[in-house]
Amino acid sequence: MFSLRTGFCVLHLVFLWASTLANEKETSFQLQQHNVPMSVDVINLKPTDNSNKHNNWPGRYLPDRSNGENYGSISKIVTENEDFAVYSAPKQKKNMVTMGSMDINSTCDDGKTNLTRDWDGSVYNYTCMQSQFLPVTDIEPLLERDLVPKYYVANHVCMKESISYNHDIPSFGPHRPAWARYGEYTFLPKQRWLHNLEHGAVVMLYHPCTHPVMIVRMQAALKACLFRHIITPYTLVPEDRPIVLVTWGNRLYMNDVDTKLATDFIKKYANHAKETTARDGQYDHLLIQPAELISPDDVNICPPPHKRKNRI
Length: 312
Ligand SMILES: *[C@@H]1O[C@H](CO)[C@@H](O)[C@H](O)[C@H]1NC(C)=O
Ligand SMILES: *[C@@H]1O[C@H](CO)[C@@H](O)[C@H](O)[C@H]1NC(C)=O
Ligand SMILES: *[C@@H]1O[C@H](CO)[C@@H](O)[C@H](O)[C@H]1NC(C)=O
Description:
Keywords: Signal. The protein is of the alpha/beta class. Helices cover about 15% and strands about 10% of the residues. It contains four helices and eight strands; from the N terminus they run H-E-E-E-H-E-H-E-E-E-H-E. The protein has helices spanning about 1-25, 190-200, 210-225, 260-270, and strands at about 30-35, 140-145, 185, 200-205, 230-235, 245, 250-255, 285-290. Strands 1-2-7-6-4-5-3-8 form an eight-stranded mixed sheet. Helix 3 (about 210-225) runs parallel beside helix 4. It is globular and about 50 Å long. Mean pLDDT is about 80; it is low at about 20-25, about 40-85 and about 90-100. It binds 2-acetamido-2-deoxy-beta-D-glucopyranose (NAG) (3 copies). One 2-acetamido-2-deoxy-beta-D-glucopyranose (NAG) binds near residues 103 and 108. One 2-acetamido-2-deoxy-beta-D-glucopyranose (NAG) binds near residues 102, 103, 107, 108 and 158.
């Protein structure tokens, strides 16, 4: 009797060990990298360049989809060299006014006025109107990188003007001066979260019909990684890869939740943006749950549980 029990125990342990191994298997994914053609619209502001170019910036940054140019076909394998927007880890500058925070005011954008310019508040943007999507297993996750030129400067646009983008999931571009408070939203327009991306955030977009188990697993992993995260439903994600993690210049499309791949992505690309700052935002319309501090200034991204600042 005793040995039978021990036998079961051992079997159980072997099973646990095997399933752990299975979970830790090397993750694979497809990679697509897109050069953002600098000559078209992207400003190349060298530190010595005092020209007025960026004041004339019309707010579009890629060739129009309609004119037949497909920047997606221009791809190039690069090593992470100097030419593209892989910024080094943050150097905290004390007393530095975040660029453009002077236009956070009630005549330009206070994060409260004329919000319907970016989103009409429709429930269809955050409600599942069809059956839930189950994980798709016969495809791989897809990592898409927009190779943003290092000297690209994104404009701040007041609420008097609309901002349009050439991609359903822009990974960089002009945005609103008042960025979003970090955390989970009923719905947050892209004109806001793009600004958070510029500060080094990770944005999790999910289709409202994504199976709740997938949403909960990805949310839990992201929330435990860093303070600077945004979570919002978004209907313009692909249905076969309904969860997308976005950082400045990068998109990881997931057909199922692979927490190892996701945390690798977050560790690699979070906090490597144009103006990294951990300051919380001003916009909090429909914020459901504010983000928690994980490590001061997010220096320690996706730390093991015992190293989290917010542990109880
Ligand atoms: C508000 O922001 C706009 C746009 O940057 C600026 O022109 C204006 O001077 C600001 N107003 C105040 C009162 O700071
Ligand atoms: C809301 O959903 C509609 C219909 O799918 C879409 O056209 C629109 O772009 C969405 N709005 C936002 C702000 O995502
Ligand atoms: C809000 O919209 C109204 C009407 O279009 C406009 O007159 C006003 O200047 C706008 N205010 C802001 C802060 O965008």
